[in-house]
Amino acid sequence: MEVQEKAQSALWNGLMDRYHYRGYTPLAGAQRRYLIECDEGLLAAIGFGAAAWKLACRDQFIGWKDGGVRERYLHLILNNWRFLVLPWVRSRNLASRTLAICSRRLPADFEQVHGYRPALLESFVEGGRFAGTCYRAANWICVGQTRGRGKQDRRHSHCLPIKDIWLRPLVKNFRETLGVANQDICLSQFLRR
């Protein structure tokens, strides 16, 4: 269910604060959040918000060579900012099914509220904690790793954990939608990871 009411928002925030290893902080920019449930109760929570400003591997995968093009089209990328399967839930393939369903549902939900459809999803997976198996099973592509710097790093200190960067195109012509005219980018360099 999409988070739309105040009580749902408070529940989502509280679940992240209590059970997600990174806790809760407000999502930046345009966003959508979901609570995943079944007849037996709540299973998971997931949220999407503004994409990272600069990611060398992502930008290379898209074909962005010009910062001006990135600035014009970055709003069409959403970051899977938080994903939490509740610690007591055991359900085979729940995480990958949730990601797959969100990949299908999110563009229309986002357009209905914000007036445009995203073309690409991104996520960061801390390799020491998680293998990214659910992303791979949901047809996301690992395109590289972060440098461990984060958006607040002004001194190039590399103080954050290095994370795998996963992407999921939402439309066939995502590169064209993101302002890249030449579609001759070789995917094989990314698929070997």
Q: Structural class of the secondary structure composition?
A: alpha+beta
Bin the strand percentage. 15-25%
Helix and strand run:
HEEHHEHEHEEHH
Give the neighbour order of strands across the main sheet. 1-2-3-4-6-5
Major sheet attributes: 6 strands, mixed
How much helical structure, as a percent, in the residues? 25-40%
CATH class group: Alpha Beta
The radius of gyration over CA amounts to 17 Å
Question: Which residue ranges are poorly predicted, with pLDDT under 50 across at least 5 consecutive positions?
Answer: none
Oligomer: single chain
Query: CATH superfamily, please?
Result: Gcn5-related N-acetyltransferase (GNAT)
CATH topology: Aminopeptidase
Mean pLDDT across residues: 89
* Annotation field: number of helices: 7
| Level-2 CATH architecture | 3-Layer(aba) Sandwich
